[in-house]
TrEMBL record:
HAMAP family to which the protein is assigned, alphabetical: GDP_Man_dehydratase
Reaction equation(s) it catalyzes: GDP-alpha-D-mannose = GDP-4-dehydro-alpha-D-rhamnose + H2O
Family, as annotated: Belongs to the NAD(P)-dependent epimerase/dehydratase family. GDP-mannose 4,6-dehydratase subfamily.
GO MF annotation list: GDP-mannose 4,6-dehydratase activity; NADP+ binding
Domain NAD(P)-binding, first and last residues per copy: 6-329
Cofactor(s) annotated in UniProt: NADP(+)
Protein name stated in the entry: GDP-mannose 4,6-dehydratase
Gene3D superfamilies: NAD(P)-binding Rossmann-like Domain, UDP-galactose 4-epimerase, domain 1
Keyword flag NADP: yes
InterPro entries named among the record's database cross-references: GDP_Man_deHydtase, NAD(P)-bd_dom, NAD(P)-bd_dom_sf
Catalytic class of the enzyme: lyase
Keyword terms of this UniProt record: Lyase, NADP
Record flagged with keyword NADP: yes
């Protein structure tokens, strides 16, 4: 039978990939958009699905708006991907971040509990909940220690997912996803900031990129594989929580080196901390600089996930490795910059 899914955050990175996957599987896909306007449509356009998703206007801040939407479309599955997802911004906007990422999830859960409690619900939880990590690698049993308003808000939502499952027997899943990137990643995140910046440097449109902490380590995977894990979670007999990660970690510095390398630059490092500079070995030009502006008041130094449970129970396993991911993103941005120059 044809299923109906509602994806919140449809215009984000994961929303676009998940929308495509569910359409391929024959779902009727409703995409909730908070009216970000035509400019927010680029990902759906790039995937060629902008006319196939049924866009509805829904903001996680507005209870009645969500209520009417769920009552009208009564989805079989909801994927809650909408969020203020930029950790750095959450320090400046902790209340907005909590309203959307914590209370917004509760609004959805409570509305479903009232209207259609059998709805299967996926919540986009995050490795940021591990923050100052209490164990390496992190598993579903590792204690949480969030380090940002974003992490704290997502942890509230995570426990609500667990609570609604236990209290009302609802099919609610928390996917604890480690960083996942792609050519559709937002430009504010370090990976895309780097690959887009490097493509512009390569084509003479920019001199350098200014960044923050180069020593933070992340477990970076490929978004298009992670959204398959989301779908799998909602197809199981029992609702549960799962980590999706690669089991490999790399520093931001390694990302810089590898991304430059993939377009023919060799980076030599000079200086320490905020005085660090990444220099082009061939020309001696400074291509990377560090500024305190991009440091966070509290940093997550190291993330490394163990995806064993997802492999065993869901049969989910990431294939794309760090080097391939960086190359894929750099190549996509080189193509975009060439287009922009035309
Ligand atoms: P993203 O590209 O930033 O997309 C988030 C989407 O949420 C955007 O389309 C945004 O709308 C929408 N949104 C923001 N505030 C909203 C509100 N008040 N009401 C309705 N929609 C709202 O994020 P992503 O990388 O695809 O991530 C998807 C989800 O997974 C997020 O919840 C994120 O926190 C979580 N997550 C991401 C990662 C990762 O590495 N990517 C890892 C773990 C968890 P606009 O387009 O209008 O801004
Ligand atoms: O930072 C460091 C920064 O903003 C990664 C979101 O999808 O993944 C993402 O959160 C690291 C941090 O992602 C710059 O300090 C250095 O240590 O790309 P990011 P994030 O904070 O890890 C998690 C799992 C989510 O759930 C989030 O929604 O890179 N860094 N220099 C920088 N970061 C940025 N953005 N910009 C810099 O210039």
């Amino acid at each position: 039978m044809n299923k109906t899914a509602l994806i919140t955050g449809i215009r984000g990175q994961d929303g676009a990939y998940l929308g495509r996957l569910l359409l391929e599987k024959g779902y009727t896909v409703f995409g909730a958009d908070r009216r970000s306007g035509e400019s927010g449509n680029w990902r759906l356009k790039e995937l060629g699905i902008e006319n196939e998703i049924k866009i509805i206007y829904m903001d996680l801040l507005e209870f009645e708006n969500i209520y009417r939407t769920i009552e009208r479309i009564k989805p079989d599955e909801i994927y809650n991907l909408a969020a203020q997802s930029f950790v750095h911004a959450s320090f400046e906007q902790p209340i907005l971040t909590s309203e959307v990422d914590a209370i917004g999830v509760l609004r959805l859960l409570d509305i479903i509990r009232t209207i259609k409690p059998e709805t299967r619900f996926y919540q986009a939880s995050t490795s940021e909940m591990f923050g100052k990590v209490q164990e390496i690698p992190q598993t579903e049993k590792t204690p949480f220690y969030p380090r940002s308003p974003y992490g704290v808000a997502k942890l509230f939502a995570h426990w609500m997912i667990v609570n609604y499952r236990e209290a009302y027997n609802m099919f609610t899943c928390s996917g604890i996803l480690f960083n996942h990137e792609s050519p559709l990643r937002g430009l504010e995140f370090i990976t895309r900031k780097l690959t887009y910046g490097i493509a512009r440097i390569k084509h003479g449109l920019q001199d350098k990129i200014v960044v923050g902490n180069l020593d933070a380590k992340r477990d970076w995977g490929y978004a298009d594989e992670y959204i398959q894990g989301m779908w799998l979670m909602l197809q199981q007999e029992q609702a549960d929580d799962y980590i999706l990660a690669t089991g490999e970690t790399h520093t931001v510095r390694e990302f810089v080196e590898y991304a430059f390398d993939s377009v023919g630059f060799k980076i030599r490092w000079e200086g320490q901390d905020v005085l660090t500079k990444g220099i082009d070995e061939k020309t001696g030009k400074v291509l990377i600089e560090v500024s305190p502006e991009f440091y966070r008041p509290a940093e997550v130094e190291l993330l490394l996930g163990n995806p064993a449970k997802a492999k065993e129970r869901l049969g989910w396993q990431p294939v794309v490795k760090f080097e391939e991911l960086v190359r894929m993103m750099t190549e996509a941005d080189i193509r975009r910059v060439i287009e922009e120059k035309r």
